[in-house]
Amino acid sequence: QVQLVESGGGLVQTGASLRLSCAASGRTFSRYSMGWFRQAPGKERGAVATITWSVGTTWYTDSVKGRFTISRDNAKNTVYLQMTSLEPEDTAVYYCASRSRAGGAYDYWGQGTQVTVSS
């Protein structure tokens, strides 16, 4: 069984920073990339940032470019999302996920962590 456990969410004010962590545990599994997704109330879940596990190639959705940074620690089986200059529009439940091949579906998901940015 593979588990992804997110942590680091919370309630902050506009302009603050937070760092989310996602630790993977359980049996060894094939991992091509991991990503952070978010879902705000009444909206669909969407991708925020992704990183390939071996090379570290990153991708960001336009609204977070320059503010968020995704990184990974292979030794710790952990992926991070450093969020700066947070805005109320960033309020959402943030999920991490893993997929085993390029272009494939995300196989494993965490339970989510709430990020709330007050104005």
Question: How much strand?
Answer: over 45%
- Summed up, the helix count is 0
The string of secondary-structure elements, in order, is EEEEEEEEEEE
Taking the sheet with the most strands, its summary is: 7 strands, mixed
Tell me the number of strands.
11
Alpha-carbon distance between the two ends: 40 Å
Helix content percent band: under 10%
Radius of gyration: 14 Å
Structural category: mainly beta
Average pLDDT rating: 94
Low-pLDDT windows of residues: none
Query: What assembly state would you assign to the polypeptide chains in this entry?
Result: single chain
Shape: globular
Task: Describe the protein in words.
This protein has 119 residues and is mainly beta. The chain contains no helices and eleven strands. Strands 2, 4, 5, 6, 9, 10 and 11 form a seven-stranded mixed β-sheet that branches. A four-stranded antiparallel β-sheet has the order 1-3-8-7, with no helix packed on it.
Strand and helix map with partners:
Elements lengths: L1 E6 L2 E4 L4 E9 L6 E7 L6 E7 L5 E3 L7 E6 L4 E6 L8 E8 L8 E2 L3 E6 L1
Parallel strand pairs: 2-11
Antiparallel strand pairs: 1-3, 3-8, 4-5, 4-9, 5-6, 7-8, 9-10, 9-11
Task: Summarize this entry quickly.
Helices cover 0% and strands 54% of the residues. By secondary structure, the chain is mainly beta.
Which key features would you list for this structure?
7-stranded mixed β-sheet, 4-stranded antiparallel β-sheet, 119 residues
